[in-house]
Amino acid sequence: MSTTRLFRHSFAVTIKSRHELRRRARSIRVAGFTLIELLVVIAIIAILASMLLPALSKAKAKAQQTACLNNLKQQGLSLFLYAEETRQFPGSVQEAKAEQPLLNGKVCWPPRMLPYLGSNHVIFNCPTENRRYHWTNNPTKGPPFPYNIIPNATGFTYGYNDWGVGESGRNSSRATLGLGSHLGLDDPQLRPIKDSEILAPSDMIAITDTRSDNNWDSVTDPSDPGTFNNPAGEWPSRRHSLGSNVVFTDGHVEFWKQMRLVARDENVRKKWNNDNLPHKEAW
Fold this sequence. Notes:
Layout: H1 3-31, H2 35-86, E1 93-94, E2 106-107, H3 109-113, E3 158-160, E4 205-209, E5 243-248, E6 253-257, H4 258-261, H5 266-269
Antiparallel strand pairs: 1-2, 3-4, 4-5, 5-6
């Protein structure tokens, strides 16, 4: 091959190689992203996330509220079974003379209801509330389970209607207006409440979501002074869309807004009392 022909051949190969490199470069540019394109994609993803996250949060809260409602349904059933077997309600605190000495001085309604729940203590834990307030069956200190709920000290997520519309609602001839409180003190006003004393089971509040702050978390009381901006510590909680799930003594469950539950309204206040009367003298 002559020098001229060799040069022409080499030049043709070089041109062909350049064309191939350019073709590949164009292919790479088409398959990839420019910086602007990448920023646009990131911005779109951020916008979609900002739109979806609130909806996901609402869906999660609704699912937790439904799980809480199911917890209270099971508590309502266990309360009904306990009352049917013993002919009385468990009371909120057993001060003395308990059937099990370890129960003295402790919150007594969850331990007494527990056997009717297959010993599943998780049913007493609202999934919306912080886990540090959940009832544990493996305490690291203090009394053993299930005697480890101490009044005015241990966190809890549900409250028992012990006093009704208030402590002042009892008098020399009448026990508590609720479902019983501070049992075992030889005080006829603090005796257990019999199931026959509940005049309207489907219209009497038994247990509600409660405010969890280690301050009498295990009871619920509508009469303590408070406001929307500064709710009382023993009011039913508003952890579920500004409201609380409520189980009645017949076992059915309803959702109520917090401020409606504590309203100074005769039609509401009577729902807290075992005689189904408002007892305005106790407000």
